[in-house]
Design brief:
The chain has 356 residues and is α/β, with parallel strands linked by helices. Helix 9 links the parallel strand 9 (215-219) and strand 10. It has helices spanning 35-47, 60-63, 84-91, 95-108, 119-128, 143-150, 165-177, 203-211, 225-232, 259-276, 328-331; strands at residues 8-10, 13-15, 22-26, 52-57, 111-116, 133-135, 156-159, 183-188, 215-219, 237-241, 296-299, 314-317. The longest helix is centred in the last third of the chain and has 18 residues, at 259-276. The protein is built from 11 helices and 12 strands. The chain has an 8-stranded parallel sheet with strand order 5-4-3-10-9-8-7-6. Strands 1-2 form a two-stranded antiparallel ribbon. Strands 11-12 form a two-stranded antiparallel ribbon. It folds into 2 domains: 8-276, Aldolase class I (TIM Barrel), CATH 3.20.20.70; 285-350, Antifreeze-like/N-acetylneuraminic acid synthase C-terminal domain (Type Iii Antifreeze Protein Isoform Hplc 12, Alpha-Beta Complex).
Length: 356
């Protein structure tokens, strides 16, 4: 177990336990084949509060082959009836757009990230100047690809959907063996959409403690509930799919957030972070007035000089103007140093032998 979680810098911004969550808007297939829509998504993601826009860099031929045998058909779920080649043909982002999208993100002031799926896509992204990389859950066992990405000595964000602890360890060690220590893991449920009850978000803190690196959430569940909960569980990164509208037909629309929903999620995340605050004891400034309504020791009957203090004439009551209730046992049986009127807050000088 690691005692301290490493902090990672992404384009100069620290990402880790003591910093606001880094929020990624995943465009994926939501451009629906339109470069203009892709650029609009970048703008709307920035307006919605995203720190980063993410795309994916592959072609159908770099990720699979054009074959419709049973091995390449999808028989269930969101993409039932598709072949892998056909699905990726609909979903991919043409490489000729990607340099322009990178430039657009720079103009807007939002980080730009991509997931490469083979060495040629890594080389392409190096050519346009990508400053950090994402590895998808389905590629976590492709250690040669992970090694090649990590060898570029840039931060790597690695999703862990479906992975066993052994597979995650192998991937982490593969990155570290290149000398690259700038790694962030994302807890992920690789179901589209994912059910929040199956998210097992306690794993976030466990992963962070095991590997000593920041951990976040790649979230395919509806709404912002899982994202908020993940932040409360220690997530340093939140990634959600982002679309202009779910009515725009594409393979990812059904589990993507609209700009309005994404903005609400960002607000929820930031409010959660504010509520988590820091380790703090004592009254906050807006509580200080209410300190006066704590309990303290008062004379609840008139007490004459020389008269003993008893449970009948001294009680712990509100407000807090008198001695702290912790002194009650010490003063009972002592005698009054002077007359003490009914309703007087007790102080040491009113009690024989208790002057400080």
């Amino acid at each position: 177990m690691s005692e301290k979680t490493k902090e990672i810098l992404i384009n100069g911004r620290p990402v880790g336990a003591d910093h606001p969550a880094y929020i990624i808007a995943e465009m994926s297939a939501n451009h629906a084949g339109s470069p203009a829509r892709a650029k609009e998504i970048i703008h709307r993601a920035k307006e919605a509060g995203a720190d980063c826009i993410k795309i994916q860099t592959y072609t159908p031929d770099t990720i699979t082959i054009d074959c419709d045998s049973e091995y390449f058909r999808i028989d269930d779920g969101t993409w039932k009836g598709e072949t892998l080649y056909g699905l990726y043909g609909k979903a991919y982002t043409p490489w000729e757009w990607q340099g322009e999208l990178f430039d657009e993100a720079k103009k807007v002031g939002i980080d730009f990230l991509s997931t490469p799926f083979d060495p040629t896509s890594v080389d392409f992204l190096e050519g346009i100047g990508l400053s950090f990389y994402k590895v998808a859950s389905f590629e976590i066992t492709d250690l040669p690809l992970i090694r090649y990405i990590a060898s570029k000595k840039k931060p790597v964000i690695l999703s862990t959907g479906m992975a066993t602890l052994e597979e995650i360890s192998d991937a982490v060690n593969t990155v570290f063996e290149t000398g690259n220590r700038d790694l962030i893991l994302l807890k992920c449920k690789s179901a589209y959409p994912a059910d929040p009850k199956d998210m097992n978000l306690r794993t976030i803190r466990d992963l962070s403690e095991r590997f000593g690196i920041p951990v976040g959430l790649s979230d395919h569940s509806p709404g912002s509930f899982s994202a908020r909960t993940a932040v409360a569980a220690g997530a340093s990164v939140i990634e959600k799919h982002f679309c202009l509208g779910r009515e725009i037909e594409n393979p990812d629309a059904s589990f993507s957030m609209t700009p309005e929903e994404f903005a609400d999620m960002v607000k929820d995340v930031r409010e959660t972070e504010a509520a988590l605050g820091k380790v703090f004891y004592g009254p906050s400034p807006d509580e200080e007035y209410n300190l006066r309504f704590r309990r303290s020791l008062f004379a609840v009957r008139k007490i004459g000089k020389g008269e003993p203090l008893t449970p009948e004439n001294v009680r712990s009551i509100r407000p807090s103007n008198g001695l702290s209730p912790k002194y009650l046992d010490r003063i009972l049986g002592k005698v009054a140093a002077k007359d003490i009127p009914f309703g007087t807050p007790l102080s040491m000088d009113l009690i024989e032998g208790m002057e400080e």
